[in-house]
Design a protein that fits this description.
The protein is mainly beta. Helices cover about 5% and strands about 35% of the residues. It is built from three helices and 27 strands. The chain has helices spanning about 10-20, 40-50, 165-170; strands at about 1-5, 70, 95-100, 110-115, 120-125, 130, 140-145, 155-160, 170-175, 180-185, 200-210, 220, 225-230, 250-255, 270-275, 280-285, 290-295, 300-305, 330-335, 340-345, 350-355, 360-365, 370, 375, 385-390, 395-400, 415-420. The strands form six sheets. Strands 1-11-10-9-8 form a five-stranded mixed β-sheet, with no helix packed on it. It has a five-stranded antiparallel β-sheet with strand order 2-19-18-17-16, with no helix packed on it. Strands 20, 21, 22, 23 and 24 form a five-stranded antiparallel β-sheet that branches. A hairpin with a 4-residue loop joins β5 (about 120-125) and β6 (about 130). α1 (about 10-20) packs across α2 (about 40-50). The N and C termini lie far apart (about 40 Å).
Length: about 425
């Protein structure tokens, strides 16, 4: 068990008012501004400032490319050189929703495909993991993850299967506790009755700053067998530039929760820093890592991740002229993205948009965007939280309309099977 860092975002006063009034947070940026959807007192407005000081009102950023998205193509990747000779996929693609796999999910967040084809989905607010029969859509609750303390954007977030799942049957989960964000692993025993199939959580890593906002939460095992975690700065921007803090980082760990060998800062789990709130991680077929990141007032980002690199927050948002910071390979106005999960399929990054309510296609050549991002499903299914490669030309897509910021329709939330090109 490892423990690095401490601290939490927001303030006690802000949390107390949030819990008293249950004011929903702004859906634009996963919680940068509190929206007054009903008349509230000056006291409540002051508490909102305690939670989100320094954030602007809900509005589009400055003028940009059509759709508010630009490909910048400036960030280097992490794979061997020579990517300039790689063939870019077509500039334009297509999306076809094949079917609704299941519906009626409550606050779904993470998704992990099982070896046999079924899907595991985490519920942020319920703290449960559900197994979905991929063919019939039938839902079975594995159990509740003990220790989860949902509030604001926190709760049970990303999940991933152990690299040795076939033999150890371990599920990893990133969640918000009463004191921090942490990563645990649990035995999944299918022989037990539904609701009792999850073993007690074994804490692998703890001490990640938590708050009502910006908890990060995506975890994934990379091609190297190491565990990667995207964290947020919990509403305290300065943590992102502090390499001793775990907030606003991408972490690289062994499956046991130690700082992974070969990390850029010896003895540290920090792999990259200067991030605001990372909720998407994916690798291409040359083992280059990409990550999506929420902006504040102007630009959301897709980044190609270099070990040890600084991605600028809070000193830079989007592209910067400062050579100390890595620029994103694509950026979006905040009203058309709010990016959460990403997946890589045959030369293309697919990115789920929350406030943007669309699925973005970003074609790559090497570790750079080769054409302007293209949007699909705009407004059709509402907020989109997670996208996971499903093999071949397909992805699993998870909606997020029951998270307190969407407008749920009959059947929400759901998992979709989508054909992409």
């Amino acid at each position: 068990m490892c423990a690095f860092g401490s601290g939490r975002g927001g303030t006690r006063a802000g949390r107390a008012v949030y819990e008293k009034w249950h004011v929903p947070l702004d859906d634009r940026l996963e919680g940068t501004v509190i929206v007054q959807r009903r008349a509230v007192s000056a006291v409540l407005a002051a508490a909102a400032l305690l939670l989100t000081a320094g954030c602007s009102s809900d509005g589009a950023g400055p003028p940009g490319a059509p759709g508010g998205a630009t490909a910048t193509g400036t960030a280097p990747g992490t794979a061997p050189s020579g990517h300039a000779t790689e063939t870019a996929p077509p500039a334009k693609g297509s999306v076809k929703v094949l079917r609704t796999v299941t519906e009626g999910l409550r606050t779904p967040w993470g998704l992990a495909p099982l070896p046999g084809g079924d899907l595991l989905v985490s519920s942020r607010d319920d703290g449960t993991i559900i197994r979905i029969d991929e063919k019939t859509g039938r839902k079975t609750e594995l159990g509740t993850v003990s220790g989860v303390s949902p509030a604001g954007e926190g709760g049970l977030l990303g999940i991933a299967l152990s690299p040795g799942y076939a033999s150890d049957h371990m599920i990893y989960a990133y969640f918000t506790s009463a004191s921090d964000n942490r990563i645990v692993r649990m035995l999944y025993d299918e022989r037990k009755p539904p609701g009792e199939q999850l073993g007690a959580p074994d804490t692998v890593f703890k001490g990640i700053p938590m708050g009502l906002i910006h908890n990060g939460g995506r975890i994934a095992f990379g091609p190297d067998g190491m565990l990667y975690a995207g964290t947020g700065e919990s509403g305290t921007g300065g943590l992102a530039q502090d390499r001793k803090s775990l907030g606003g980082k991408i972490l690289r760990l062994t499956p046991e929760g130690e700082a992974a060998p070969g990390n850029p800062f010896p003895g540290s789990p920090v792999y990259s820093y200067g991030h605001r709130n990372v909720q998407g991680l994916a690798w291409d077929d040359r083992q280059r890592l990409f990550a999506s990141e929420f902006g504040q007032d102007t630009w959301d980002e897709l980044n190609a991740i270099k070990p040890g690199a600084n991605y600028g927050w809070p000193k830079a948002e989007g592209r910067s002229s400062d050579p100390a910071f890595q620029n994103p390979i694509a950026q979006w106005h905040t009203d058309v993205a709010s990016p959460s999960g990403i997946a890589y399929v045959k030369g293309v990054i697919w990115m789920a948009g929350l406030r943007g309510q669309r699925l973005w296609r970003i074609p790559l050549k090497g570790a750079e965007a080769s054409a302007a991002p293209q949007a699909f499903l705009t407004g059709t299914y509402g907020r989109l939280r997670t996208v996971v490669a499903a093999g071949g030309d397909k992805v699993w897509l998870v909606t997020s309309n029951t998270d307190g910021r969407g407008h749920p329709k009959k059947g929400d939330d759901r998992v979709l099977e989508v054909e992409v090109s």
